[in-house]
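Example record

The entry below shows one chain as it appears in the dataset: sequence first, then structure tokens.
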Amino acid sequence: MTPGFTNIMVESKNSILFATLSQIFGDKMNLARIKFFGLFICALCMVQTVCFEKLAASFDSDVRVDSSLRRIQRFISEYLLDTCLLARFVFALLPHKPPYRLALDRTNWKFGTTNINVLVLAVVYQGVAFPVLFRMMPKFGNSSTFERIELMQRYHRHYTKNDGK
């Protein structure tokens, strides 16, 4: 592929990403935040890490890296992202229509002396699981049947709302 063609493909994908973000988050997020979120997603895909310094360095913008780093830190610490909107965004990017294969998984680790226990619902596409909903569990150990059902009901409420059923 020629470099010019590659740039057109990247610009096209960025336009699709921005249009999708605007459609889903437009009434909940201002334009500057939507543009930042698009940069953030592209950086995550490019560097494949959540290290803020690496993400900031890979932003495709004319802004200094330290400014991008502060912007990332502010976004993560101050902005409460609506997980249902995030799930709609993931669904909008999937290249096929429902029914989807879902995976329900729990992960538990320690951060210092704090136990972090998360129940995650993901959409599986071509062997890759895309987390769409989660529940922070205020306990150590397995999830209960009730907690798993509640997460699936959240998915169902969102899915039927998004799909128009």
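Notes for this example: Helices lie at 3-25, 31-47, 52-57, 65-78, 83-93, 145-163. The two ends are 43 Å apart (CA to CA).
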